Fold Mannonate dehydratase.
Amino acid sequence: MEHTWRWFGPNDDTTLTDIRQCGATGVVTALHEIPNGQVWSVEAIQARKELIESYDLRWSVVESVPVHEDIKKRTGNYLEYIENYRQTLVNLAQCGIDTVCYNFMPVLDWTRTDLAYELPDGSKALRFDQTAFAAFELYILERKGAELDYSDDEKAAAKAFLDNATEDEKNLLVANIIAGLPGSEESYTLEQFRDKLAEYDHIDKGTLRQNMKLFLEAILPSAEQGGLKLAVHPDDPPRPILGLPRIVSVKEDVEWLLDAVPSPANGITLCTGSYGVRADNDLVDMIQQFGDSIYFTHLRSTKREEVAGSFHEAAHLEGDVDMVGVVSAILQEEQKREGKGRAIPMRPDHGHQILNDLAKDAKPGYSTLGRMKGLAEVRGLELGLKSLMGSK
Ligand code: DNO
Ligand code: MN
């Protein structure tokens, strides 16, 4: 595996020097300063690449080139945005970058309700509390039709949650959901959020799939020509929320995707923390099945809670993800590729807020020390497994 680290650019508190010291050799980043939908110029890409290389690191993966909402809905300026996306891919390829992560989640990127969930040892984790989310959806957002998705017991629990919450807690819950987590391109007020959701009223799963297929058909030939691999990130959490369709959540979705637009440029990001929230996603099985279409991995674990749909982020080698099984399946896939292509880039994805980072205003999920711990643990696991497998 190639050990990489997500870096949010020159303003990130975690510096490129820190990243090297944490044990990564590759950087995962994006030109976050360029507004969603605009072309990334060769000059801008090249300058960022040279900066990274001047620290003896490599720009391993672009995460993400964001997909404009108009493309997902096929409304407004979608044709122009698709063309800009294609041009950005051509420019990235020209600069020698070969892997691009993206996602196709409507309106929101990843979603959590609690960004400072205290664990028994005093560290903090990110959490998705389904009851809090229901409270938001049913009684704060008051989305039409949402009540249909909930049982009477769930509604009562959501109501009780809200009755017990202070104004500050309610405001924080709303902000956590709609203000945009690190890496999200969008951030909304409650009013804007209602409008954005309404724009999807006529878009169901089938339509969203069709829109994704048409988008990929338009960009994949250029990606393929430039030797680029696209790696779609799964929905997080991996299920429909807020009445929005979600189409990259389970194994069948990936089967559909790879089948709908066959191309060596059409691949996936195996994010174990996202897919792993569902007990019916067998990660080892997915790695074996999608093997040569996996171009990037996010390794972390989650712990499902008692209330269905609720989970929090666990330490990298704990929780529900069988990390030993996952890493050994990835290493077996790499063995199969022997000689062809490069090591599969992995990043520790999120980490807990621990030690000195607890006193800092760290980006949710992206504090330095928690990710350093996660990377170190996964690297140790990898080294041990490799030695058992008799490979280097
Ligand atoms: C969260 C991330 C997501 C992911 C995007 C990929 O930490 O895994 O923000 O980067 O969804 O496009
Ligand atoms: Mn991820």
